[in-house]
Fold this protein.
Amino acid sequence: MVLNTLDIYQAIILIAIGLMAGVINTLAGGGSNLSLPALMMYGLPADVANATNRVSVLMQSITASRGFYNHDKIDARSVKDTFFPLLFGGLVGAIAASYINVELLKPLLLGTMIAVSLWVVLKSDVQTEQHSKQKSCYSSKFALLATFASGFYGGFVQAGVGFVLIATFVGALNYDLLRANAMKVVATVIFTSIALLVFIFRDQIAWIPGILLGIGSIVGAQIAVKFAIEVKAKTLKIMVLLMTIFASAAALI
């Protein structure tokens, strides 16, 4: 699937939207509520737009993962622990997305984004520090199911998956918010990689707009990592809430 009628102004718009989506996705989630409508505005069907969006998501997530890793916010043991549930969930979700109307999950998406962001913001730092150390996703059936479900959702629709991942890492696996944000982008690399292969096999990728979005999203991810590393936890929580309100409003338009 190729879209080759973009002029220079359309290309600039896609790069700018990619930059904003890269910032939003790295800090919290919901950036796809900007990029998906933009792709459909240029004539891509919903399923192709959903698939094409994964190109930029993967590019920004790899960039953000490198940034967090360079600041020692990513633990290799955590990556190994969650790798297979996220990968398998992403595979099943992507296969489902290639056949099912993604709009069916829109009400669930909005409810999840708002509920999770409010919970993260209201959760006290003291309570987080007093909790036990990070848990393995294999420590309970609930933790394993939550990790798999996050991968499935990311493989299926992507938009808003950041909030689902934050809920999983903070709520089910006892991560602090900064490390949850770091693991969130690593998790996105895992399930987006396998999802992208599915969509390539199904010939649902429009490469030109996907790469243009990706160029902007790389810059956005770099900006967001620097911000996330330097700000205080309470400020980051407020940013998560603001990003949620913005993403929810964008999804409703």
Observations:
- Residues 46-70 form the longest helix (25 residues).
- Confidence is low (pLDDT under 50) at residues 124-131.
